[in-house]
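Can't paste images in this forum, so I'm doing it all in text. The chain is below; anyone willing to post the predicted structure tokens underneath?
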Amino acid sequence: MKVKQLVLALLFVGLGYTVLQAQEKETLRLSLPEAQQYAVEHNYTLQNASLDVQKAEAAKWQTLSSMLPQVTSSFDYSNMLGYKMSMGGFTIPLNPYGTFAVTASMALSASQIMGTLMNDISVKMSDINHQQSELSTRTGVKSVYTSILVMEDVVKLLDSSLNNMLTLQESTRKSVQAGAVEPIELDKLSVQVATLRNSITSNRRTLKMLYSSLILQLGADGNTQLELTTPLEQVMDINEAAKLTMGGFDLEDNHNYQLLQQNERLSQMQVTNAWLQFTPTITAMYQYNAKTYFGREEGMNMTPPQMIGASINLPLFQSGSRLAAVRQAKIAQQESANTKKQTEEALQVEYNQDCYNLISAIESYQIQKENLAVTKRVLDNTSNKYRTGYASNLEVTNASTDLITAQSNYVQAVMEVVTAQIALENLLGKKE
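Text version of the structure:
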């Protein structure tokens, strides 16, 4: 009876542990667009890019607020400890007193206004960086997502070939036992079976690493289980990929070019800001004071209750430092213009090269896809011939080796298409 209770207890513990594990591991079923959107919402790098935009906005308003009225208040208390000041035979008591003051001031200069406009450009540049990071996140997810789908298809293909080889190995073993085939033939097949198994194991390890990489890019929990729902045929839309090479290239859509445009505007404003150092700074202030004595006798109060003031600060001579700053800003502006012009030409060359790379990758992919299918059929056909004695072991070995090579070439061709397509999408600034 006690043994039965112990067994039941162990079963309940094991069941509870299994349920707990199931609860800890969340399963995400994601299509490619859903995976990309999930990464946009959860990826830490993209979150930091979004925070950079908020920081730039805060810096802009910090500069703007410096031109608005600044109000400060103060209160102080003084006690001369009963001291009286003597003046020509009469004394003036210095009673304890307190003073409350409120001061409102405002300083305005042309360089402050220009500083606000320059901060506005910084906000735009941060926003462009955020868009660029989002595009990079989306394309990165697509690359890993596609790699997983390719590896899963390859593993299925190799599993099918392995089952075929195992059937062939078993029939050869029976033939050896019957004395119809030399044992060396069985040994050769065993080597091919081991080679296929090793290839499958290696691909499964790669597949596991790819899933971990995708989880990291998504910003999901490390215990999350992923289920990808978009088929490879839909992701590898060759017609859509080829269309990227036909739409032309608009520089205005490229994020790097947009940053250079903003940088050129910033350098122009820096020249203007250098000239504005010659302009005056206007300051205005208002102050209210309330002074109260705490003794029996009212002391001498020389503090005015209210006061206003204004000043104009005009820089006159600084040994040519402002003119040197203007020259420096103009040189920086010319450098920025040269960089922009050089980048325009480089981006056009890069577009032509990326189009060529994508077209070549598509052609190679189509060849390797067909080659993989043909190689699979050759192995199946050779295996059938081997069973009936019309093919040698060497032919089977060669066909199996060719299949592994074709699989490797196919994976490489797929990734070349994805890499070339992503490079062109990033250049064109397309989110898909």
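The two ends are 67 Å apart (CA to CA). The first helix runs from residue 2 to 24.
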